[in-house]
Structure formats: structure tokens, C-alpha cells
Amino acid sequence: MTIFEQIDLWTSRIPLEEETASERKSISMEILCRLNSLTKPQGSLGRLEEMILWYGLVCRRSLFPDPAGVVAVFASDHGIASSGVSAFPQVVTVEMVKNFASGGAAVNVLARQAGLELMVFDMGVNADLSFLHAVVNAKVAYGTKNFLTERAIAPAEMAQAMKTGFGLSVKLKSQGKGFLVLGEMGIGNTTSASALIAALLDLPPALVTGRGTGLDDQGYRKKLAVIEQALSIHMPTISFPVEWGMAVGGFEIAAMAGAILGAATVGLPVILDGVITSAAALLAWRICPRVKHCLLAGHVGHEIGHRAVLEHMGLDPVLDLDLRLGEGTGGVLASQILKSSISLYGQMATFEEASVSGKI
Amino acid sequence: MTIFEQIDLWTSRIPLEEETASERKSISMEILCRLNSLTKPQGSLGRLEEMILWYGLVCRRSLFPDPAGVVAVFASDHGIASSGVSAFPQVVTVEMVKNFASGGAAVNVLARQAGLELMVFDMGVNADLSFLHAVVNAKVAYGTKNFLTERAIAPAEMAQAMKTGFGLSVKLKSQGKGFLVLGEMGIGNTTSASALIAALLDLPPALVTGRGTGLDDQGYRKKLAVIEQALSIHMPTISFPVEWGMAVGGFEIAAMAGAILGAATVGLPVILDGVITSAAALLAWRICPRVKHCLLAGHVGHEIGHRAVLEHMGLDPVLDLDLRLGEGTGGVLASQILKSSISLYGQMATFEEASVSGKI
Questions:
Q1: What is the per-residue pLDDT for B360?
Q2: Within 13 Å, how many C-alpha atoms sit on residue B191's CB side?
Q3: What is the predicted pLDDT for the residue at A275?
Q4: In A132, A255, B99, B290, which residue has its Cα 20 to 30 A from B74's Cα atom?
């Protein structure tokens, strides 16, 4: 099966709007009815009520228990890193994966605090990590190719990386997990993400490219030039969105796009993190716009490409905390708000139960 | 001791900027030094890093354990409620206090989820609640007077209500609590808060008055007219900010203003919730501007007066979720972000510990 056939098969399984319209209507009615019975002025939980409704519609249920969530961090290396587009050396990818494995990174701390299970996937780190038992070995290759000189990802590699993500969503849903937070690690991956966003939104790279982990002016100009050159090199060869994913993407971006396609298929709520996860969402959305219903934008961060994607896709971020760390950190923070919303929905007393008077 | 002497005594104990300048400088340096040693790009935790710095400066420490937080809900009735300014009947105040006592209100659910201790204070509910063991009996009177016809709060009552709050902050600090989230309940209290904000900011009531728990157009016009009339009645009699608190305030607002003065004195971080807690912060700030250093704006909500106060005081809200519930709900949600920040600061590995390479 080619990558195109694979994608056709996947997207054919994502429900059409009209297939679920009447079910969605009745779930919405039931959720709103319960929300309005709780001891609070109608609508006074604002965005939290929207999140409850979103959650119920993705899960296709009007009543749900407090969810067990998972944050999956997809790590991979990027050939483009050798073109000097990052403030950190490429070896930091593998070093940070080891940091995830030993529990010392930001996402470890946040996942523990938020009560989420953390899964780390080696999608293509440039080192053998099979000895790390805390890391899922899903390695496609030892890093992507440098997209300044060739296509970053071959079609068979793309299918393999996407399958890892797709399979994760299917598995988590079958295990009864409540939601998936997407996270990533990979030196050079804001360059890959910005190139992908510029290509898929047809915007000048300067409008969607930031300073990543902290480039200086010279480094930023170089990053921008690299992206501009890469886009002009690959442009003539491309007809479909997934080909942009292969041309300038990363294995972690492909895996997350696959996870989103899988989540949309099985009805698993997905919380996005920063610009890399948003680039993956954009790729999945361009492959099949129906994935949008399962997505929650956890936050909007520092990278300008992040805001551009969210605005284009019409996703309203839960948090705005000027984060630029990645790893899923903003997504995990937002998951606390989601969990709070769901607890309120499940545990608050109704006017009747608490004998509280209604509106005059 | 008059209320004015009481306030002079309190404010004299809040440290002056110049007294703590060198200490604050060294604490800031130590915190930034540790933040920059953690395995993340410098500054990449954005607002979370600012919150860590704020927390350390209020506590006057550069290292701190994961904090035990308290949310205090101050409940009281308002004479102005009889002028028909709320969408709900006055009896909802006592009904909701019972709901707090039995654990079914929104703030109960959120406090449980965030791991905060919830304390409920009867500051002046219009019913005998002394039989509720889960409620602290700090009743000043059975509701305030109607401020359309007379001063809402007598000077001795004001001192008593403020002392309750002040004493709470002193006690929590001595118990080693890490922070205090302010919350409130009281039918009619957005009218009281908006009147206080309009008076203290010298703004037209229409710019700081919202629909509270859900007034219709007619109700909103009435609320606005009530506030305008009240301000013109009391204006000629008033020389000091605290007199506005007595003229149009509430016992819960007075208690929260006292809690903020106490918190600034002992170095207890305070998280504000909605428009009522912000009105209390504004009153405390007009009494003594040095209280500002201990305040964190948990969120900015639906009520326009809320945003006006935060902008005027230069407080940048952590969350923006369109909440309009009160009870401390937005403050408790924001406390999760604060607790996450403090956990990151305390638990993340350093570059050295994790053997992660630094910037090129």
C-alpha cells in the first residue's frame, strides 16, 4: 500500500458531519441541560462549559467519568539541524530523551502533577536508545534527511511514522483513556514546522518563523533563508499536503499527524501543545478537515507560526502563557483546566439536589 | 481605636520598598540563576517563570517547597439586594453557603481537585448559620444596610470585618500555608463591587458594571441607575478610600481587603478571583499601594469592572476563560498553574544533573 492509499483508507473511516449530526445534536442538548441544572448562573463557567461540550462531542457521550489522560512525547532528529538552524547542538535531542526517561524534564514534572501517564516515543533519534525501557522504540531512521538537499522523509518512512501515531490513538481509546496530549522533542524541529506551515498556509516564511529555542539575529536570518530556499526547491515536486510532510517534515510531526487522524477516527480528544504539534495538526487537517472536531488548542505560545496555524484552523487556545518549551508542556497545563471542567460537570450539585433557588 | 487608627496601624507594618530592595534583588538573582540552570531554553517557561519569581519575592525566599494553599470564601448579604439588582433572590446567599458546607458548589469541586483547603466564612449572611460546623462564624450583622438610603457598613463593623480577613492571613502564614485564594458569595455583591470600583477609579458606572449573574436589559438599567444614584448620595460625605468601602461595600469585600493588608504584612501570596475580589484588592491598594506586590490576578472574567481594575492596578491575569461565577473558582484554577510553576522550579533537573548540553 502506498502512503496515498494508506491515507485514503484512514480518512475514509473518519465519520462525515452528516452521519453524526443527529447524534451530536442530542448529546449537545443533554450536556447543556445538565450544565444548566448545576448550582451556578447559566453559562457562568464560560470557556469551561465549551470544553465540556467539546469533550462530550468528541467522545460521543453526554456523561463521562473523570478521564485518565496520556501525554505522548514524540522525539526525533532532523537532518536540517546540520545547517545550523538551532541554538542548541543536535545531541540535545538524545540527551533530552534520556532526561525524559529519568524523570527530570519539564513534561515529567507537569505530567506527575497533573496525574497524566507520560509515554515517550523514539521516532527517529540519531542514536540507539533501545536500552531505555521507559522509551517506546518506534525508530524510523537515525534522523530525517537534510531537506535543503533532498526530501526529508521517504514515502515508506512517512507511512511508518504516521502508523505509529495512528495506532497509539486507537490503542488509547480501546484502553478507555480519556484524552491524549501531544508533545515533541527534536533539535531543528521548529525549522521543519515553520517550513511546513509556510507551505501549507501559503504564507511567507517570515510570518510563521520564530527564534525557536533562542536564536540570535544572525541565526534567525539563517533559519529564514534555509526555509525560503527549501520551499523553492521542493515546491515544483508537490501536489498533495502529505508530500509537504515528506519534503520538510519530521518523523515526530508525521507521528502526531497520524495520531490525530487516528483520534478523529476513534473519537479520542486531543490536546495540542506548541508550534510543532500545531504544524502536525495543520498537516492532518489538510489531509482531512474532519479531524478538527477532536482538537483542543492547549495554549498559544511565543512562536508566531503557532498563532498563525490556530487562527487559520479556527482553534481558540485555552491558555496564553508565552511558553516556548514544547515537550507537551502547554498541553499538559491545559489538560488541568479540562480535567477541572469535567470534574465540575460530574460532581457539582444541581439546584434541586442542593435546594438552591433559581432565577427570579 | 477608630477604623482610621486601625488602618494606620496596619499599613505602618507593611514593609517599605526601600527596606526590602536589596533582599529582593538577591532573591531575584538566586531564582533566575536556578531557572536558567534547568533543562529548558532560557525563559522558555514564559509566564510561569514570572510567577515563580513573584512567589519567591512575596515569600521572601529563593527556595520553597510545593505549597499548601487555602481558598477562603467570604459570604455575606447586601441590603442593596432589596432594590432588585440581582437575577437571583437574596435567599440564594444562605442556600449557597449550605451548598459550600455540603461540598456541592463549584469551588468545592475545584478545591478538591487542586488539593486546596477550603474555608468558608459567614461574614454577614442574612440567617443564623452557627449550626454549620464547616462554616466559620464571623458574622458582623445580618447583611449590610441598603446603600441607596444609608451607609452600608458602620465604622465599627468595617473594622470587625477587616480584622477577620487580616487575622486569617496572619494565621495562615504562621501555619506555613503557601498561598491564599480569595473567593466570595453574596447576592447583590457585583452591584456593591461595581459601585466601589466606579467610586475608587472615578469612572462612570457604565464602564465598570456588568450583568452579574445574568440580568436582562431592564435589570441591568436598574442596576446602573442604583449605582449612579448611590454614588451621588454618598460622594459629599467621603474623604478616604475606606469610607467608600463603608458607604457601598460589603462585609465580604471588607474582609478580603483586610486579608490583603494582612497578606502584604506577613508575606503571604494572594490569588484574586473575579470582580468582587478585585474590588477588594482595589480598596486595599487605595488604602496602601504597597499591598500590590503580594497579589496575583488569577483570571480576567466576563464583568467589565474586573478588567478595569486589573488594568488600572497593572495586574496581568493568568487565565482568560470568560468566567463569571465567583466563589474563588477562577483563582483556584489559576492556583493550579502556580503550583505547576513551583513544581517545575523545584523538581526539574539541571543541565548538569541531566548531562544535557547547553547553547552552542
A1: 85
A2: 36
A3: 97
A4: B290
Does the beta-carbon distance from A92 to B44 stay under 8 Å? no
* Residue B203 neighbours by CB under 8 Å, 6+ apart: B197, B308
Distance CA A195, CA B106 (A): 44
> Cα distance from B91 to chain A (closest Cα, Å)?
8
How far apart are the C-alpha atoms of A328 and B23, rounded to whole Å? 36
A315 three-state secondary structure: coil
pLDDT of residue B172: 98
R_g over Cα of chain A: 20
Q: Is there a common fold for A3-65+344-354 and A69-338?
A: no
CB contact under 8 A, B337 and A321: yes
Distances in whole angstroms, Cα of residue B292 to Cα of each of A294, B119, B192, B250: 41, 23, 22, 21
**Helices B189-201 and B304-313, packing angle to 10 deg:** 40
In terms of Cβ atoms closer than 10 Å to its own Cβ (0-12, 13-18, 19+), residue A338 is buried
Domain boundaries, given as residue ranges, for chain B: 3-65+344-354, 69-338
Q: Model pTM?
A: 0.97
- Which residues touch A19 (CB under 8 Å, ≥6 apart)? none
Chain B environment of A113 (Cβ under 8 Å): 339-340, 343
Whole-angstrom Cα distance, residue A158 to residue A140? Answer: 9
User: What's the pLDDT tens digit per position in A280-336?
Assistant: 999 999 999 999 999 999 999 888 999 999 999 999 999 999 999 999 999 999 999
Angle at CA of residue A296, ends A292 and A298, nearest 5°: 145
Amino acid at B54: W
Strand order in the sheet with A69-76: A135-137, A117-124, A69-76, A179-185, A270-272, A295-297
Of A88, A343, A360, the CB nearest to B113: A343
Q: Do A87 and B39 touch (CB under 8 A)?
A: no
| ipTM of the modeled complex | 0.96
Residue A145 pLDDT class (50, 70, 90 cuts) = very high
Around Cβ B357, how many Cβ atoms within 10 Å?
14
CATH architecture of A3-65+344-354: Orthogonal Bundle (1.10)
Q: What angle do CA B194, B198, B201 make, to 5 degrees?
A: 130
pLDDT tens-digit series, residues B326-342: 999 999 999 999 999 99
- Architecture of the domain spanning A69-338: 3-Layer(aba) Sandwich (3.40)
Chain A residues within an 8 Å CB radius of B104: 39, 347-349, 353-354
